[in-house]
Amino acid sequence: MLVETASGPTQDQVEILEYNFNKVNKHPDSTTLLLIAAEASLSEEETQKWFKQHLAQWRKSEGLPSESRSVPD
C-alpha cells in the first residue's frame, strides 16, 4: 500500500492520477473520483484536490480560463 508523504503523493500515486487525468477524464464524477482515489490509495478529498490543481495548471498551459468548462478538453 502506498503512503502519502508530507510533501504530497508518491511518484506511483502521481502516475495513477496523471494517467487518469490524461487518458480517462479531466472532470471525473464522484464515482470515478472514488475509484481513482482507491486505486491510488488516497482519500477522495486528496484526489479531488489534486485534480482541481492539475486542471488549473493544464488550463493555464493551454491558455484557457481557469474555471470555464465551455471549451472541450
Give an overview of the whole structure.
The chain is mainly α. The chain has a domain at 11-60: Homeodomain-like (Arc Repressor Mutant, subunit A, Orthogonal Bundle). The protein has 3 helices and no strands. Helix 1 packs antiparallel against helix 2 (30-40) and helix 2 (30-40) packs across helix 3. It is globular. The N and C termini lie far apart (32 Å).
What is the alpha-carbon Rg in Å?
A: 12 Å
The assigned CATH architecture of the domain at 11-60 is: Orthogonal Bundle
Separation, N- and C-terminal Cα atoms = 32 Å
**In one word, what is the shape?**
globular
The CATH homologous superfamily of the domain at 11-60: Homeodomain-like
* Structural class by sheet pairing and helices: mainly alpha
Q: Give, in order, the helices and strands.
A: HHH
What is the CATH first-level class name of the domain at 11-60? Mainly Alpha
Helix content: 55-70%
Segments where pLDDT lies below 50 for 5+ residues? Answer: none
Overall pLDDT score: 83
Strand content: under 5%
Major β-sheet profile:
none
At CATH level 3, the topology of the domain at 11-60 is Arc Repressor Mutant, subunit A
Count of DSSP helices? 3
The count of strands amounts to: 0
Protein name: Homeodomain-only protein
Keywords: Developmental protein, DNA-binding, Homeobox, Nucleus, Repressor, Transcription, Transcription regulation
Subcellular location: Nucleus
Domain Homeobox: 10-61
